[in-house]
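seq as requested:
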Amino acid sequence: MGLGDYSPGSIWYYAPNKAAPIVFIILFSISGVIHLYQTIKHKSWRTTALLPWAALLMISGFAVRLAGAYNTDNLAYLIASTVLMMSGPPVYALINYFILSRILYYVPYLAPIHPGRVATTFVGLDGACEILIGQGAWRMANSDSTDAQRQLGADLVTASLCLQAALFGAFGLLAAQFHRRATKAGVLTKDLKTVLYVMYVSAAIITIRCIYRLVEYIEGWTSSLYRNEIYFWIFEAVIMFINTALLNVWHPGKRLPSSNSTFLSRDGVTVRKGPGWGDDRPWIITIFDPFDLWGLAKGKDQKTQFWDMNDEELEILRAEKKKNKRGFLKGLLDPFHLWGERGYVVKYFHKVKGQERSSGGATQQVREVGEIQDGGESTKNMV
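struct tokens:
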């Protein structure tokens, strides 16, 4: 294993280890297959479906690295391996966002913000991280590039890692706020505690890995962190395997409901079926206003507190939601929900017509009052 010793002709600087990639390919393959089985068994597609994908990214990265170990002068292997290895951990971070979102759907009355906004906000920003990584990693790994180009790549990756760190800071605060509320309300069940603690450990692991990469790219490709392979195996391979194995042992899909409509009553015991805490706004608007600041200002969220309704009211609400649900294709073709029976255009014309009717009715009433008054005056004159 390279410990900082230069290997002539190697674009990696050192001679990459040939045994370690095989070990981690096997380990991540086992973990990924188990995750796939667990996701199918617990029907937790919306929460944990990306776990096998994250494992596959890591496996692919190790496989390309193994090929590069036998072709140390081939730049393509270095670039591909770097991009793949940099893409895996953000997906694991993404899964933590989905887990927190599902927890907030399960205990909606203690959610600091709308559960759906947790997913859209953090997932969107995490997507930006992936783009920055993709654009930066290949530039930085390309030894044929100029120093300025490689530095640009390192800067892009650094920016991505800083954004990831900020995201995890905000994520941690959000999770801690919910945890405090749930503890105070006495609804923190054993399963919820387990999921939260596992999520905290997972987030800490990914943060440590993020810090390692951040320091590595700040110091540059001539640093000891970059040129000593042992650091890669410890802070990239080992701790990320601990992360995926942790989620195997305490799989969140086993401890959280598979549906967003299932929620825990305020007594902390009764599990009920609700309409789900939906966001009726067009999906494209949720991207530009993920926290629905306009809705919060108008008190819109106060109208969606279904968790305090009785069973009959919930049944009516579920039926209404099912009736008004828009299909995926309609949402894609009409992202602003302008058309259709409940579209903004139709609502606007209905509103205008309603105002015209009200205005017309008021005018008619004024005329009738005027006629009555005129009739009264005529009667007086006759008398």
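The chain has two domains: 20-262, 274-333.
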